[in-house]
Specification:
alpha/beta; six-stranded mixed sheet; ten-stranded mixed sheet; Aldehyde Dehydrogenase, Chain A, domain 1; 39% helix; Ald_DH_N; Aldehyde dehydrogenase family 16 member A1-like
Length: 811
């Protein structure tokens, strides 16, 4: 026909047009109306409404319409939620494992039946597109409850030496209100804990809907409570809370760590990511570009796993940038209930304002933004900034949103170095068709998850979590169960209120450094030669920076020897030595590490009597007790030598067609402060598992009885141990503890000292969000309770490496 364009297959595909395909809000609105658009608190299996309570508005990010109001929980409400949760714990934890499994299974089935409603509520409250909530978020929540129903069934056999903590407070992030909630609640319930959920005020509705589902399932009263509040202080600081699980920003995570310090609460943190996406020259560029879009703009870019740092090998840099701009130009931004839209509104105008501020900061790069974005406060266009300076705020700072920053690198080694040169460590993706580069890069990148030729793959069977400032603890898989249980022997009375002056703790030494002391004995008219020990770090003996030593006396007040009064500079030198060797020691094959531990044990055996006599002289223990302490220490060395090559990791059974490997890795540099009881066995029991699993340690021996630990350096020097793997520093424990805790190259601190010191370690660890393991002043039975899973848990972290397949058999 005249004037009509000629259509062919090519032109149709080049000019595809889409009509509107809106999703319906009616299910969500109907549920809101059922609650009269006003929610109380879900406590003890029922909705609690009180008069004259402060209310908080929950608004639709797409149009700012009022969805509902929630109430601000009062102090009395918090106390009620905790007391009912405590009462429910006594019942829930004593239930048969099969009964708990059936409850979790019932929750999974009910979630499945309600997934359409859940998807719509999640979208209307958070600004996510319904396409994503239907296809990704809600199925993942359901999968977690099915998965942990299985773990609930076999918990008693798989975790026979462990028991639940008790009352667990879960604070999900607003980026994944229901998924963060579901993955953690499922694991907590499976292990016998009860749960109090404190949802974000930005997106509380999914948690309140989950409360309705728990009620529908018939979950015992008080097992799950949901309270809404804009402030979490009274809940997190409550003495009857046993476990806290937090997901959010680094700043908020640091605040939570400080708030819970010294209270005996176990803490898990999943914090911001700024994940790197590495594109190597051997990559399938078109596939990589699709992966970059998924990494940077999935969930509106509001995810801890968002790939917002794009690192491209310079040989393909221009090609990737151009293809990326073309692909971004086709992204559609608009109402999140429109099925054709790729991105909806951001959750709040404050998030968008932060992005605008970053965009206006000096970065030296070029900016590309998608056009046709609604001109409203909560919308922000998908944005690419390339050729930026790696020192600029937009490259370094923490943010949430659809903002992608690209830089070039030259070699594979430089790309990995750039990826690791960051305080973040939650996830990364690697794009290359070269399997050798892919596997080595995945192994070397410091992150809790690494995807190969993919991004944002998740499954309940694979652990998710961070390292460095991205936090610690895991969500998913068996590893996450250990975040919700404690050893059966752990029945200590944890101090709840300890007064510590954080500014003064460990700032001055209290050691007796007077060099004058009576001689230990005389032989005729000849005086005995006193023994002066040295510090041991970097593989050699060193004098302390202070130049001072102090005497160690026996029970009868005889001077047994002088030990160096180490200080801050000595700790810094030791950490530098440990950091220098940590990577090479971690890479050393397990058999090689085992041979060294066996050699150490052999050398200790040949000097058993010498060490037993020294322990007896220091502690006034009997020769039999002292000999037994050394013999058990030798057994420990053998035990951990055996574990050098037997804890590498697992292949997880995920829904992915491919391989998902959960690799157990070293933590890095661990600072260890030893107790006074069992001064030598405690030293060995803590050092041996740490180095067996590839860590380097800076260890502070017993304050009162350090001689056996200091004398141990002679055995280390003759046992082929690389210099810097074990570093021994003596001095005032508080001073040395403070320096270890505040040092940003120390990845974890194990502290077995006073309750005050334990509180300081937890408080000070917030600086670089290092993992801690403290005793709260309680004595540990190193004879019976210091081998096995607990030490393995603290000596390792996990990395999930995802390797999709499908080139040969796609289906």
């Amino acid at each position: 026909m005249a004037g009509q364009a000629i259509l062919n297959v090519e032109s149709i595909f080049d000019n595809l047009s889409y009509g509107s395909a809106p999703d319906s809000e009616s299910a969500a609105l109907s549920w809101l109306n059922k609650h009269s658009r006003h929610f109380g608190l879900y406590i003890n299996g029922q909705w609690v409404h009180r008069d004259a309570q402060i209310t908080v508005e929950s608004r639709n990010p797409a149009n700012d319409e009022l969805l509902a109001t929630t109430v601000e929980a009062s102090e009395d409400d918090i106390n009620l939620a905790i007391s009912t949760s405590r009462e429910a714990f006594n019942i829930w934890s004593s239930l048969n494992a099969h009964v708990r499994a059936r409850y979790l299974y019932s929750i999974a089935r009910t979630l499945q039946k309600c997934q359409s409603l859940l998807a719509v509520v999640e979208a209307i409250d958070s600004g996510k597109t319904t396409r994503e909530t239907r296809a990704t978020d809600i199925p993942a929540v359901i999968r977690h409850f099915y998965h942990y129903a299985g773990w609930a069934q076999i918990k008693d056999s798989e975790l026979a030496k462990w028991k639940p903590y008790g009352v667990t407070v879960i604070l999900p992030h607003w980026s994944f209100p229901l998924l963060h909630l579901g993955s953690r609640v499922a694991a907590a319930l499976a292990t016998g804990n009860t749960v109090i959920i404190l949802p974000s005020t930005l997106a509380p509705l999914s948690a309140l809907l989950f409360a309705d589902i728990c009620s529908q399932v018939g979950l015992p009263k008080g097992v799950v409570n949901v309270v809404t509040a804009s402030k979490d202080v009274s809940l997190l600081s409550h003495p009857n809370v046993d476990k806290v699980v937090f997901a959010g920003s680094i700043e908020d995570g640091q605040r939570v760590r400080k708030l819970t310090a010294g209270t005996g609460k176990s803490l898990s943190l999943e914090l911001s990511g700024r994940c790197p996406v590495l594109v190597f020259e051997e990559a399938d560029i078109d596939s990589a570009v699709e992966g970059i879009i998924e990494a940077a703009f999935f969930n509106n870019g509001l995810s801890n796993h968002s790939g917002t740092r794009l690192l491209i090998q310079e040989t393909v840099y221009s090609q990737v940038i151009e293809k990326l701009k073309i692909r971004m130009s086709k992204l559609t931004v608009g109402k999140n209930f429109e099925k054709n839209n790729d991105q909806g509104p951001l959750i709040s105008s404050e998030v968008a304002l932060k992005l605008i501020t970053l965009l206006q900061s000096p970065h030296g790069g070029q900016v590309y933004q998608v056009e046709g974005v609604p001109n409203q406060n909560n919308y922000f266009p998908p944005t690419l900034i390339y050729d930026v300076q790696t020192s600029s705020e937009v490259y370094v700072d923490e943010f949430y949103g659809p903002l992608l920053v690209a830089v070039a690198f030259r070699t594979v080694k430089e790309g990995i170095a750039l990826a690791n040169h960051s305080v973040y460590g939650i996830a990364a993706s690697v794009w290359t068709e070269n399997i050798n580069i892919a596997l080595e890069a995945a192994s070397c990148i410091q992150a809790g998850t690494v995807w190969i030729n993919a991004h944002n793959l998740t499954d309940a069977a694979a652990g998710v979590g961070g390292c460095k400032k991205s936090g610690y603890g895991r969500s998913g898989g068996k590893r996450s169960l250990y975040d919700y249980v404690q050893p059966n022997y752990q029945n200590r009375s944890v101090p709840r209120t300890i007064n510590v002056d954080f500014n003064k703790f460990g700032t001055s030494s209290s050691a007796d450094i007077l060099p004058i002391a009576p001689p230990t004995d005389t032989a005729g008219d000849k005086l005995s030669v006193d023994k002066t020990y040295k510090l041991f770090y970097g593989g050699g003996q060193k004098r302390p920076d202070s130049g001072a030593s102090y005497p160690i006396r026996s029970a009868s007040n005889q001077v047994l020897g002088y030990v160096p009064d180490g200080g801050r500079k000595d700790i810094r030198n030791a950490v530098e030595a440990a950091d220098k060797v940590a990577r090479s020691w971690a890479k050393k094959e397990g058999h090689g590490k085992a041979q060294i531990l066996y050699f150490i044990a052999e050398n200790l055996q040949s000097r058993l009597k010498e060490f037993a006599d020294l322990i007896s002289a220091m502690t006034n223990k009997s020769k039999e007790e002292s000999t037994n302490e050394v013999e058990v220490a030798i057994q420990r060395l053998f035990y951990w030598a055996a574990y050098c090559d037997k804890y590498g990791g697992l292949v997880q059974e995920t829904s992915l067609y491919g391989l998902t490997v959960e690799k157990n890795e070293s933590v890095g540099v661990i600072g260890i402060v030893c107790p006074d009881n069992f001064p030598f066995l405690g030293f060995i029991s803590l050092v041996a598992p740490a180095i067996a699993r590839g860590n380097a340690v800076v260890i502070v021996p017993s304050n009162k009885f350090p001689l056996a630990a200091l004398g141990f350096h002679q055995i280390l020097e003759t046992s082929d141990l690389p210099g810097g793997v074990i570093n021994i520093i003596t001095g005032d424990q508080d001073v040395l503890t403070r320096t270890l805790t505040e040092h940003h190259d120390v990845n974890a601190v194990w502290y077995f000292g006073s309750a005050e010191g334990s509180k300081f370690v937890e408080f000070g660890s917030a600086g670089n969000v290092k993992a801690t393991w403290v005793s709260y002043g309680a004595e540990v039975d190193f004879i019976n309770n210091c081998d096995g899973e607990e030490l393995l848990y603290h000596s390792t972290t996990t990395k999930s490496i995802w390797m999709p397949m499908g080139d040969v058999f796609a289906n």
